[in-house]
Amino acid sequence: MAKPHLLIGGIAPFSTVDWPGKLACVAFLAGCPWRCPYCQNHELQSPDAATATEEGLFALLEQRRGLLDGVVFSGGEPLAQETVIDAARRAREMGFLVGLHTCGAYPERLRQILPHTDWVGLDVKAPWKTYDLVTRAPGSGRRAQESLELILAAGVALETRTTWHPALLSPADITAIAHDLAARGVESWSVQAYRATGTTGELPDETVYPSEVPDDLPGLFKTYEFRRA
Ligand code: SF4
């Protein structure tokens, strides 16, 4: 049986923000098994959101050889589609660096794609034990934790990011997340303040400010950034 093609919800041909320090094309893959209430790509949670083709993506990459550093597979959750592993391998063979945005929902697929991946942006959404309150998916904390451990063991460059809405995470939660990551040897952490743009609007329109991040946390990391998500 022929392998299914990637379901792509959109392509950004040039981005300087999706992979820090790199000029990359970004493929937003359709489908995600989790339902975070702050999701800014909620229309991409369904596989039915596909509007672009894998061949379109690779035709674009063919035209951009020498102009782009790499390609980022984002979403949705890119590992919701097993075919992304072959796509990463193919992009590498063309000479592109490969970046991956993931929530960590598919540790086994992550293990398979890591040898073809140069950088990972991993969401760390909550303390592991209360993960499901954010993702609304049973067992999500165990999966995300296993994904983090796989990336660290593989030695692939990693940025962790935590989206902070005050109704979902307390300052004590933020502190617990940061200390857990630092104790594991994570060197890069970003706090992304909730923004209502692109969400379903189900959360109260509140946000957080850089001064609300406890003072001792940024110094735990080699690289720390506060962003508006
Ligand atoms: S894991 Fe990411 S794509 Fe999936 S629902 Fe949460 S924020 Fe949206």
Tell me the layout of helices and strands.
Elements: E1 8-15, E2 24-29, H1 54-63, E3 70-74, H2 84-93, E4 97-102, H3 107-113, E5 119-123, H4 132-135, H5 140-154, E6 157-164, H6 171-183, E7 188-193, E8 223-228
Parallel strand pairs: 2-3, 3-4, 4-5, 5-6, 6-7, 7-8
Antiparallel strand pairs: 1-2
Helix pairs in contact: 3-5
The structure holds iron/sulfur cluster.
Iron/sulfur cluster binds at residues 32, 34-36, 39, 41, 45, 75-77, 103.
What this model shows, in words?
The chain has 6 helices and 8 strands. The protein is an alpha/beta fold and 229 residues long. The chain has a single domain, classed as Aldolase class I (TIM Barrel), CATH 3.20.20. The chain has an 8-stranded mixed beta sheet. The protein is globular, with a radius of gyration of 17 Å. The mean pLDDT is 95. The site of iron/sulfur cluster has 11 residues, from loops.
Q: How many whole angstroms does the radius of gyration measure?
A: 17 Å
> Which fold does the CATH topology refer to?
TIM Barrel
Total number of domains: 1
CATH superfamily heading = Aldolase class I
Helix run count? 6
Sheet with the most strands, sense and barrel status:
8 strands, mixed
User: Structural class, judged by helices and strands?
Assistant: alpha/beta
| CATH architectural label | Alpha-Beta Barrel
Q: Estimate the global geometry from the Cα principal axes.
A: globular
CATH top level? Alpha Beta
Helix and strand succession? EEHEHEHEHHEHEE
- Overall pLDDT: 95
Question: Brief overview, please?
Answer:
The chain has helices at residues 54-63, 84-93, 107-113, 132-135, 140-154, 171-183; strands spanning 8-15, 24-29, 70-74, 97-102, 119-123, 157-164, 188-193, 223-228. With 229 residues, the protein is α/β, with parallel strands linked by helices. It has a single domain (8-228), classed as Aldolase class I (TIM Barrel, Alpha-Beta Barrel), CATH 3.20.20.70.
